Amino acid sequence: MANSLIKFTGFFCLFLFFIACNNPPKQQQIADLSQQTADVPFSENEPQPVMEIEQKSSLVLLFDSLGLVDIQQLEPSILVELKYASTDNFTGKVIYPDLRQAYLHPVAAAKLVKAQQLLQEQYPGFSLLVYDVARPLHIQQRLWESVEGTPLSRYVAHPEKTGLHNYGMAVDVTVTDTLKIPLDMGTPFDYFGKKAGINHEVLLLMEGLLTKEQIKNRHILRNVMRQAGFYAIEGEWWHFNACSLSEAKEKNTVIE
Q1: What pLDDT is stored for residue 122 in this prediction?
Q2: Mean pLDDT of successive 10-residue segments in the chain (256 residues)?
Q3: How far is Cα 247 from Cα 242, in angstroms, rounded to an integer?
Q4: Which contacts (CB < 8 Å, 24+ apart) does range 45-51 have?
Q5: What DSSP assignment string belongs to the chain?
Q6: How far apart are CA 199 and CA 176, in angstroms?
Q7: Interatomic CA distance for residues 21 and 242, integer angstroms
Q8: What count of Cα atoms within 13 Å lies in the side-chain half-sphere of residue 134?
Q9: C-alpha span between 70 and 68 (Å, rounded)
């Protein structure tokens, strides 16, 4: 009986030794499998990683072809909220369905960057917020058609006359506070009425149509824009020109 038990024990140990020799540890198996996988040639038929390439809109391609520049590429701190890319404008319609970037002529863009720098030096945490910039004539035509034959037509330039927006030399802009909330300027952007004008603000204050705070906020905007080389216009607190219309026509190409 003892001899039989010894023989069985010896046979069992031999069996375990055989199994261990033919089955390497799990870590070794994983390493072997990884090596085998690495040695397998990559099949051209297997799915390849797809690199997503951002497609430029037709308007961006047009602006690029004319040498206009994206102002946020020059100064990322400038905020952009193109009003005509949403329904939050006087037409109530989306005019720029595929545009989110703000483009300007390089001369105007450089002045806007300067205005942003001046603003942040004088009022840390404040920022310019751009509402509209370069505007092609076919977009101007759509804006004109929305007011043609109405009393509001006097507030929108006829496409045949062209304006500085149509050369990328004008910008519609406001100022935001440290929380990126637009300062109260007394009226919204594209407000059609005398409260939007800048020449009679004292009278508007006396009539109760503007407050001292609203006038102060307008001065903040006008001061930095003028220091940077822009010109304000009488009827719109938000609109600034980088040059005269005659100069723009002489030196630049209208955006069709």
Answers
A1: 97
A2: 45 43 45 42 46 71 96 97 95 92 98 98 98 96 92 87 95 98 97 95 97 98 98 96 96 93
A3: 10
A4: none
A5: -HHHHHHHHHHHHHHHHHHHHHS--HHHHHHHHHHHHHHSPPPTTSPPPPPP-PPPPHHHHHHHHTT-EEHHHH-TTSEE--GGGSS-STTSS-S-TT--S-EE-HHHHHHHHHHHHHHHHHSTT-EEEEEE----HHHHHHHHHHHTTSGGGGGS--TTT--GGGGT-EEEEEEE-TTSPBP--SS-TT--SGGG-STTHHHHHHTTSS-HHHHHHHHHHHHHHHHTT-EE-SS-TTEEESS-HHHHHHHS----
A6: 23
A7: 84
A8: 31
A9: 7
Q: What amino acid is encoded at 18 in this protein? A: F
Q: What was the pLDDT predicted at 159?
A: 87
CA atoms lying within 13 Å on the CB side of residue 246: 0
Distance CA 90, CA 147 (A): 10
- Interstrand relation of 79-80 and 127-132 (parallel, antiparallel or unpaired): parallel
Rounded distance between C-alpha atoms, residue 12 and residue 17, angstroms: 9
Burial of residue 178 (number of CB atoms within 10 Å: 0-12, 13-18, 19+) = exposed
The two tokens of residue 26 are: 């799990």
